[in-house]
Design goal:
This protein has 2 domains: about 90 residues, Orthogonal Bundle (Rna Polymerase Sigma Factor, Chain: A), CATH 1.10.1740; about 80 residues, Arc Repressor Mutant, subunit A, CATH 1.10.10.10. Helix content is about 75%, strand content about 0%. It is built from 9 helices and no strands. Helix 1 crosses helix 2.
Length: about 180
């Protein structure tokens, strides 16, 4: 049984401290996800907080079958989507600079970020969930509502496009 399973069982039995530990465990990942989908840190913090408020509010509808993380990210995705609709904002700017500790590796490869940003929005979301948030293909399928094979093929196509752009860039640098 995983730590998550133990915490979820304790929460079902009314242990409020277990809920606090679960939130503390997932908050940095959800905040990082929200940072990708909002304009600034304040909006991301609001979205992360709203995500966990919805988790608490809808806790009774959740049945643990090993998919808590996917359920959590689906809530976060919906909260971020709603925030964009409410604010009636434009999509993220192309030159967005991330100033979070977890993005150091991504910042070091600006070309890769640019290539990901050039992907269509649905493909970009799949790449983000897989590589920035480290979700499994099954979890991504649950978050997006797509069949797992579709997630797999679209992710493969997105990575193929990135690889092609990388190779094209290397050839340009060699010339």
């Amino acid at each position: 049984m995983t730590r998550e399973d133990i915490l979820l069982r304790k929460i079902e039995n009314g242990d409020r401290q277990a809920l606090d530990r679960l939130i503390n465990d997932y908050y940095p990942d959800i905040l990082r996800y929200c940072l990708w989908h909002t304009r600034d840190r304040t909006a991301a913090e609001d979205a992360a907080q709203e995500t966990f408020l919805k988790v608490v509010r809808f806790w009774d509808s959740y049945r643990h079958q090993g998919h808590f993380r996917a359920w959590l990210y689906k809530i976060a995705a919906n909260v971020c989507r709603d925030a964009w609709r409410k604010a009636d904002e434009e999509p993220l700017p192309e030159n967005l600079i991330y100033d979070e500790a977890g993005f150091g590796r991504a910042e070091s490869d600006a070309d890769f970020i640019r290539m990901v940003e050039e992907l269509p929005e649905d493909a970009r979301e799949l790449v983000l969930l897989r590589f920035a948030q480290d979700l499994t293909l099954r979890e991504i399928a649950e978050v997006t509502g797509l069949p797992m094979r579709t997630v797999q093929s679209r992710l493969r196509a997105a990575l193929k496009k990135i690889k092609k752009q990388l190779l094209k860039g290397e050839l340009c640098h060699e010339s």
